[in-house]
Amino acid sequence: MYFLIITFGFLLAMRGARSAPLQKPVEGLKRIGLEAMDLFLTVSLILALWAFVATLEKIQPVVRDFSILGPGLAAFLLSRYQKKTDVFFLSVMASVFMINAEQYGPLQGILLAGVVSAGIALFQVCFLGLRYKLLFAHMPPSMRGWPSLCLLAGFIALILWSFGGLVF
Question: Per-domain residue ranges for the chain?
Answer without folding.
Answer: 2-9+25-167
